[in-house]
Design a protein that fits this description.
686 residues; 25 helices; alpha/beta; single chain; 8-stranded mixed beta barrel
Length: 686
């Protein structure tokens, strides 16, 4: 019987085959990437979309086949062939979602999938229920089955190879073209194998079968809808996954930067005190397990302050970075080099014997002693090193650090530019530092700190106009300890910020207590350390203290040294501007003793300059100091700042300062620092 093909439907069958192949490739990636229950649903959905695509391509191809008799299809056989296509697709997707696809598994899978597609094709042909039956040419029949197996092998290999390549759309489309042509080739080869004897009739067309035109519409619409929905869902899921990955990567990167900032020094990128503490704790555990020693080496640079004063903090920072790099080159990967702040570094190194630590210390001293050339300037410094060994000298992180610190101070006192091992019989000053290191944390916990208040006076007044809060340590055994003895230790062991926060809170509490008791609304000046000024929590802590005690911003003045302000000028400007926005006044303390930069000074939101007592002390005898104070007063007037002179102890000094135009005075001549109750008594006598 003569047959022909509808060119439009043939072209449509090829398009559907390519779409089915592209869907299969896309779904292979989704199935292999999915886990758990979602993997099952991607496999089920992908099998339905791919199977319907292959099945519909087959039936569109059959619908393109035309005989001079009416054609129809047996509904049951048609549905069975569709189910077979879906099962074959599910098997293919499961196969390519496995971690490996060896040659034997690929070959067996290709045979099973190819046979499934061939059975689907010939079952679909049987759905015509031709009478007499269709005759098949053995050669073409065998070729069609072979093409099905080879096409399946190619499809499986391509799908497995491209499943991880999410962004290779052009390559995936090219592969879909190859697979689509192979699938179509198998179908039309199978059709070529079929021959219809003259006088044949289609039993499905005259019985209860489905008419070909209705089947054509149903197959095309349903297939395109299913494939379209599958691709849309896959695309949306891919976009969601990509955005999720981008967000996850961004969060991971941000977390890495936060961890880096929290555990590393911002200047040198070396571990900071927090990470060093953890590393030493790990070293202690490791040493306990393996019964080995390790050394903590405390380094302080000799002559670094002179570099800062002579060349400025920018060159000083560059020198610290260069020192860190030079030290890093001397140690092993398992050792730790940390910077605690300022010019202090710490090494934690595994050793066999104390001689190993001594050998490393000698190399460090020699390396730091070699000149540094920065910005064309040759700089020479040295270092003093204190060494404490675990478990010989201490068995805790805090005590190891304290002993190494004490040994370092002993070396400085002995001549510098060398190293010293910790010894229990070191001098009394070393033992005092050890006591401070041990007792300072307890002092904060047990509220042993107190504030005394030194009044400020107007230039022509005998009544106080404000006070400065001065920290004291009321030690239960050693009595009242001045801040210059324990503040440097607090900075070294990381307690200066909690102590500074306590001072802020206590000063605000005292302002409120005086006000509630009817003793007036006083302005209290509080000193900030360099470390506090660099804290990102400073502004929030100041705001919280004022709100907690209902203190007006105008009642609080924060004093900073010019050295602290210039340590990181831009960051200091940002923080000081934020404090000024709260309404807090800023005073520059010890003016004239540090490294001044007038370009930054005029940008600082300060309203007060305090002349250091060193200049006031020699006003009676030194023309140079008289000229310096006169210049400071003139500078303050130009910058619209008031001038406070501290350390006033004689009437002659007060007379000179009045003559030079100072606004306020502070010193033992008028009043020593007093307790809050003594200050109230002083007010009552005024």
């Amino acid at each position: 019987m003569h047959s022909s093909y509808n060119p439009g439907l043939v072209a449509l069958s090829l398009v559907v085959a390519i779409l089915a192949a592209y869907t299969a490739l896309d779904m292979a990636g989704r199935v292999s990437a999915a886990r758990g229950r979602s993997g099952f649903w991607w496999l089920a959905g992908g099998a339905a979309a791919m199977g319907l695509g292959i099945w519909s391509m087959h039936f569109i191809g059959m619908l393109a086949f035309q005989l001079p008799i009416p054609l129809g299809y047996d509904l049951a056989l048609t549905l069975y062939s569709m189910a077979l296509a879906i099962l074959a697709s599910a098997f293919a997707l499961w196969l390519v979602s496995q971690p490996l696809l060896p040659l034997l598994r690929l070959s067996l899978g290709a045979v099973l999938m190819g046979m499934g597609i061939a059975v689907m094709h010939y079952m679909g042909m049987a759905a015509l229920r031709m009478q007499p039956g269709i005759e098949y040419h053995a050669g073409w029949f065998a070729l069609s089955v072979a093409i099905a197996v080879v096409a399946s092998a190619a499809a499986l290999w391509i799908a497995f190879s491209l499943r991880e390549k999410r962004d290779r759309h052009a390559l995936r489309l090219l592969a879909a073209l190859v697979m689509g042509v192979a699938i179509v080739g198998m179908h039309y080869t199978g059709m070529a194998a079929a021959s219809f004897p003259p006088g044949s009739i289609c039993g499905a067309a005259i019985g209860d079968g489905v008419h070909a035109q209705w089947l054509a519409v149903l197959v095309v619409v349903v297939t395109l809808c299913v494939i379209g929905i599958a691709l849309i869902v896959s695309t949306l899921d891919r976009q969601f996954q990509l955005r999720t990955e981008v967000l996850a990567n961004s969060l991971a990167h941000a977390n890495e930067r936060l961890v880096q900032a929290a555990l590393h020094d911002s200047l040198t990128q070396l571990p900071n005190r927090l990470l060093l503490k953890d590393r030493i704790a790990q070293a202690i555990e490791r040493s306990q397990r393996h019964r080995k020693r390790f050394a903590v080496m405390f380094l302080d640079l000799d002559g670094f302050k002179g570099v800062n004063d002579a060349y400025g903090h920018q060159l000083g920072d560059s020198l610290l970075v260069a020192v860190g790099e030079r030290l890093s080159a001397l140690i092993r990967s398992q050792d730790t080099l940390a910077r605690l702040g300022g010019d202090e570094f710490v090494l934690a190194v595994d050793i066999e014997e104390p001689e190993d630590a001594a050998a490393l210390a000698e190399r460090v001293v020699a390396a730091i002693g070699c000149s540094f050339v920065l910005n064309g300037i040759e700089l020479r410094i040295s270092t003093s090193i204190g060494i404490a060994i675990y478990p010989d000298d201490a068995t805790s992180e805090r005590q190891l650090m304290a002993n190494a610190d004490a040994a370092m101070y002993h070396e400085k006192a002995s001549g510098r530019n060398g190293y010293a091992f910790f010894e229990s019989a070191m001098d009394s000053s070393t033992h005092e530092k050890l006591m401070l290191v041990h007792d300072l944390p307890l002092a904060l916990e047990q509220r042993q700190f107190v504030l005394h208040y030194q009044p400020k006076y107007g230039i022509g007044s005998d009544a106080p106009i404000g006070v400065e809060a001065l920290l004291r340590w009321q030690h239960p055994e050693r009595g009242l300890i001045a801040p210059d003895r324990f503040i440097p230790v607090a900075e070294r062991i990381g307690l200066i910020i909690p102590i500074g926060d306590w001072v802020l809170d206590e000063a605000c509490r005292q302002i409120r207590a005086w006000s509630d008791a009817g003793h007036g609304d006083w302005n209290v000046a509080v000193n900030l350390s360099t470390v506090q000024l660099g804290s990102p929590m400073l502004v929030d802590n100041v705001r919280a203290a004022m709100q907690r005690h209902r203190v007006a911003p105008g009642q609080l003045t924060l004093e900073i040294t010019e050295t602290a302000a210039m340590r990181d000028a831009e960051a200091s400007l940002e923080i000081l501007n934020a404090l000024t926005a709260l309404g807090v006044s800023i005073s520059i303390d010890d003016f004239g003793t540090g490294y001044s930069n007038l370009l930054y000074l005029k940008r600082l939101p300060a309203c007060e300059l305090k002349i250091d007592r060193a200049f006031v002390r020699e006003l009676d005898h030194s023309a140079e100091d008289f000229a310096i104070v006169s210049s400071i007063v003139a500078l303050a007037r130009t910058l619209n700042m008031r001038v406070v002179a501290e350390g006033v102890e004689t009437e002659a000094q007060r007379g000179h300062l009045r003559q030079l135009g100072c606004d306020q005075l502070q010193g033992y001549l008028m009043s020593r620092p007093v307790s809050p109750d003594q200050f109230v008594g002083l007010l009552e006598r005024a």
